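Quick question, first post here. What does this chain look like in 3D?
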Amino acid sequence: MIATELLSRLDGVRSRGAGKWSARCPAHADKSPSLTIAEGDRGLLVKCFAGCSLRAICIALGIEQRELFFNARDKSQRRQRPAPPVRGDRRALAFRFELAALDLRLRGERINEAGKKLDIVILTDDELDRALGHVAQAYADCERAELFEHVADELRLKECWEKKHARHERVA
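> Answer (accepted):
Ran it through. Tokens below.
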């Protein structure tokens, strides 16, 4: 099985770099992507950070675990990358960036509020390190939300400019 085949069976797929994706896990009621997919040397690597087993994920997808390995005889399978999703108009893309920004911002704010209520005296060093790591990630998510909002604004401005420019060309 190649990545495009597996990704087509999943919901909420997001690219995380070359040969890496995240998606909602089909083995449990996943609201935010906890499943990671990556292309390894011999096959697809699949992990659910919510704790679902590989067997449970494969059953939910209706595939065998062995199907995650590349066919050793067909070397071309390793090189195929999924095409990026087809983009709609700029308004739709801007809306998707806005939704992603809202998701990041709300999650970040919830974690930061919870962090303010923590009693650090009762936490072990490991627990405190983990909590601080989550708070740092929440601040990073809020910053990324600002970037996504800026991209959405730029997309809308560009679409408005192009419409205005097209009207002027028709008049002239």
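The radius of gyration is 21 Å.
The CA atoms of residues 45 and 98 lie 30 Å apart.
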